[in-house]
């Protein structure tokens, strides 16, 4: 899907998205809560020479529309380490019926169509997926004011998901005990089933380094390494900063 929420999403694509979440086929679907809040994540690649124009458009026209339609912004970030021309944004909805309603409202709003016509030429690509929390997950704060966010994805082979989720509950306890502020784990509801996502919030990079160093030298760190090593095939991280326009829109 190229646009965040486009007219095309109102037809077959949206119906497929809804079926995928409302009737999940994940082998671990029973480990997730009954249908409740869902989180849409969009990774948006901006043309290198259009970043300022894009940010102004989102601040002035995009955010008001998305909020009017019922979305609650977890965060909108630019990338400091990773794809430097990529924005990441996550929005909370009260279940898929609420997302369906948002799509319907935007699809009928002439302001959204004008916004989309201005927005799309500024992009070089876009990916989206839907996430859901597990029963023991930490819920993300809305519009967090953390100065740095580490977006972390664990790649877990499908055959190890059951063992991973058992370990993940212990991992969350370790992170919280050692002072980490985080959200997740999120399981992909629409997207790669093998991707488990976390958000870690920091006030500075020195805070991150000091917490990681303290954890690595402790028994908790050794246990965490063991729990990860038993089930995780790979870990991908990116370092994000709050988009400038989020500061003035809260």
Task: Describe the model.
By secondary structure, this protein is of the alpha+beta class. The protein has 2 domains: 7-133, 2-Layer Sandwich (Alpha-Beta Plaits); 141-241, Alpha-Beta Plaits (2-Layer Sandwich). The protein has 8 helices and 8 strands. Strands 1-3-2-8-5-7-6-4 form an 8-stranded antiparallel barrel, surrounded by 5 helices. Strand 6 and strand 7 form a beta hairpin. Helix 2 runs antiparallel to helix 4 (110-119) and helix 5 (161-177) runs antiparallel to helix 7 (219-231). The radius of gyration is 18 Å and the shape is globular. The chain starts with 11 loop residues before the first helix and ends with a helix.
Give, in spatial order, the strands making up the sheet with the most strands: 1-3-2-8-5-7-6-4
Q: Please report the distance between the alpha carbons of the first and last residues.
A: 28 Å
What is the CATH C level class of the largest domain, in words?
A: Alpha Beta
CATH architecture of the largest domain: 2-Layer Sandwich
Shape: globular
Calculate Rg over CA atoms: 18 Å
Structural class: alpha+beta
Overall mean pLDDT: 87
Would you list the SSEs in sequence order as H and E? Answer: HEHEEHHEEHEEHHEH
Q: How many independent structural domains? A: 2
Can you give keywords for this protein?
single chain; 250 residues; alpha+beta; Alpha-Beta Plaits; 2 domains; eight-stranded antiparallel beta barrel; disordered N terminus
Please outline the helices and strands.
Layout lengths: L11 H11 L15 E9 L4 H18 L3 E10 L4 E8 L2 H12 L2 H10 L3 E16 L9 E8 L5 H17 L3 E10 L4 E8 L2 H12 L2 H13 L2 E9 L1 H4 L3
Antiparallel strand pairs: 1-3, 1-4, 2-3, 2-8, 4-6, 5-7, 5-8, 6-7
Helix pairs in contact: 2-4, 5-7
